[in-house]
Fold:
Amino acid sequence: MTRNARLKHRMKYKTLKGFQDILPPDILIWQNIETISRDVFRTYGYQEIRLPILESTDIFVRSIGETSDIVEKEMYTFQDKGGRSVTLRPEGTASFVRAYVEHHLYNHPAPQKYYYMGPMFRYERPQAYRYRQFYQIGAEAMGVEDPKLDAEIISMLTKILSGIGLKELNFELTSIGCKNCRPDYRDALKNFLRDKLNSFCSDCQRRYDLNPLRILDCKVPDCISSRQGAPQVIDYLCADCKKHFDGLRHYLDILKVPHSITPNLVRGLDYYTKTAFEVTSESLGSQKAVAAGGRYDGLVDEFGGPPTPGIGFAIGMERIIPLIKDSMKPSEGPDLFICCMGQYAYEEALALAEQLRARRLWVEINYDDSSLKSQMRKGNRIGAKHVIVIGEDEVRNEVAVIKDMITGTETQSRLEAQELVKIIKAGS
Ligand code: ATP
Ligand code: MG
Structure:
């Protein structure tokens, strides 16, 4: 082999920066979280919706907002072979509302309630808890403007998070007003920023005219300090928004959902109205938001449907997993490992394993001619709860000894599925 050929042979492929493989046993934690979430969603009447990962770019630009960080800097946008501009979804709500309008789901009784789970893509600077492909579990409820629904969906979110085993979370809440109160607030904010504009980054200077509210979301340290003392939207709410917010807090108290008001909570997406919230955990450091959401009463209208209020949230999987990893039980091993000595034994083991699997047991067999000692060691290493040794004598007599690896107890059994199942189930 030439040197080049050897090098090529050894070439290592890696995931792209900001992407990751999710392997066992971690995947068990993911599945567990998904199962717990599905269970809670069912009791609140939320049904699963599966949406495409790729959509027309316009969908995200129109909804998330042209001057948002997501649209300006973070989207995976490219031309497909037909020359259309398409984008890997950076979040779920825009695609959901597209589907809601496309399939006239507003014709069904309100509220229409859906949940989704899946990957999102944002071209961000990868760092701890911040990936370029990350997974969200999200929910959307459509067609009810009343804050009872806001309180209910927020309560559902807390049920999911506590069901997963998350503790010590902060629930931050605010109202960011509606299209009626926003103009006044925007004027007040612009007045405040006007003579400080030089100390803001060039992005913010551009946003000043286009969308000054986005300046509140800028992560540049100078911009953060320069906007200290800026007026807060919660002080500019119209009567309707104020009533809605007071109602929400009242219902959250009734549902015993602890929350704090964070007036300067800003969301990175333009479509939010009224209710906005974020769930944070101090143990995550600077990427501390584990879930976030809010109302988007204008979005269906924007997408060409009849004006329909909506509210939703999304949980970030990669941010909750590190918080619970230690408390989730480690992966389980097989119920039975079959050690085999000799050709007859293998034939018997193959057939027996099939019968036991049909009875819902997890069964592994040995595949090579290794010594009994090394087969036993393997059974141990893969965490088998029971081990059985089949050799020529066992096949002939149709009897073998099954060992409980936890207690060390050895039991004789006929080589017959029903009797083995009984012994294995009694042991585990
Ligand atoms: P952040 O302020 O952390 O950037 P965001 O406001 O951009 O979050 P949302 O669009 O509200 O996030 O998404 C909801 C949740 O999805 C976040 O609270 C977070 O848990 C998760 N999330 C968002 N971006 C990422 C990412 N790049 N990597 C991992 N999780 C993410
Ligand atoms: Mg972000």
User: Anything to note?
Assistant: Residues 26-43 form the longest helix (18 residues). The chain has a mean pLDDT of 94. The pocket of adenosine-5'-triphosphate (ligand 1) is lined by residues 91, 122, 124, 129-131, 134, 136, 268, 287, 289-292, 314, 316, 318-319 (CB under 6 Å).
